[in-house]
Amino acid sequence: QVQLVESGGGLVQAGGSLRLSCAASGRTFRAYVMGWFRQAPGNEREFVAAITWSGGSTYYRDSVKGRFTISRDNAKNTVVLQMNVLKPEDTAVYYCARRSTPGPSISYYYTSSYDSWGQGTQVTVSS
Known about the structure:
This protein is an all-beta fold. Helix content is 0%, strand content 49%. The model has no long low-confidence stretch (mean pLDDT 96).
């Protein structure tokens, strides 16, 4: 059974940066895609970014393109979300997720495509 543990959240002023990490553990960790999602109070959980585990192809929601960067370290089973030029609308709980099976890239944007989730880390951006 895989465990995903996020870290790196916190309070930052608008325009600042945060670096989120997701550490995966388990007897034999395998992933096809790793994703980051976020959920603000009263909103549904939404896609932020994803990266394929083997090829490193990346995908982003439009509102974070150019500001956020997702990367992975296969040897350490870690995924990082570097967030720059943060805005108050980025405030949310951020979740790391794993998809263990292949699928079309369009599926990476949907929560239902992922089979393991972390507990989340709070990101608050003040104006």
